[in-house]
Design brief:
By secondary structure, the protein is of the alpha/beta class. The protein is about 25% helix and about 20% strand.
């Protein structure tokens, strides 16, 4: 059973540095910006949603997009120092009493609400849950129990939680998701072109 205090943390503070001047999170998916699509998918789980963002002046369109949405925006002043700072800021902002956190990357359009619910439903208070592809490759989303919050708050660099995960291999439980949902991320214009070409018309 999915616990009530299990917020979803969407990491959306990256700079889209490989997009040739475009903001990948403002690219459209089903007629809406990717960031809004990801937030709506997370909200549909029924869990609280937090979204990390760079300073408003660095990404005003992202801030304008989330202003009217029922989420907690977390500004990351040092977002340019890597994903770890975004993750640490999000963990620090979690509501009191959170039993765990589901980390979702904002540039992964194929992760559905059902995928998130499937991973959340396996929460047991101890294991680190990782979405996995149909053929077993580990990816996202990732659920970290509260016992890992202190370590997540102290992360540095652009490796995200990789070191924490590598140091806790005995606590990793893969949760199979359809196709390549758990690993499809869109970082470049070519990624977007290829992904759109594969979508049903």
């Amino acid at each position: 059973m999915t616990p009530v205090a299990l917020p979803v943390l969407i990491l959306a503070a990256g700079a889209s540095s490989r997009m040739g001047g475009r903001d990948k999170l403002m690219e459209e998916v089903d007629g809406v910006p990717l960031l809004r699509d990801r937030i709506e998918a997370a909200l549909a789980t029924g869990q609280p949603v937090l979204v990390t963002l760079p300073p408003r002046e660095a990404a005003p369109a992202r801030w304008d997009l989330i202003d009217a949405l029922p989420i907690a925006a977390v500004e990351v002043p040092d977002a340019d120092q890597g994903m770890a700072r975004s993750l640490a800021a999000g963990i620090t902002a979690l509501p009191e009493g959170a039993m765990a956190v589901m980390v979702v990357l904002a540039d992964m359009p194929d992760v559905t609400t059902d995928d998130m619910r499937r991973v959340l439903a396996e929460f047991d208070g101890d294991m680190i849950l990782r979405g996995a592809t149909a053929d077993g490759k580990l990816g996202h989303p990732v659920v970290f129990p509260a016992r890992d919050f202190a370590a997540l708050r102290s992360l540095e660099g652009d490796e995200g939680a990789r070191t924490l995960i590598e140091d806790n291999q005995d606590r990793i439980r893969p949760i199979s998701l359809p196709y390549a949902h758990a690993r499809t991320d869109l970082d470049t214009p070519e990624d977007w072109k290829n992904w759109r070409a594969g979508q049903p018309s």
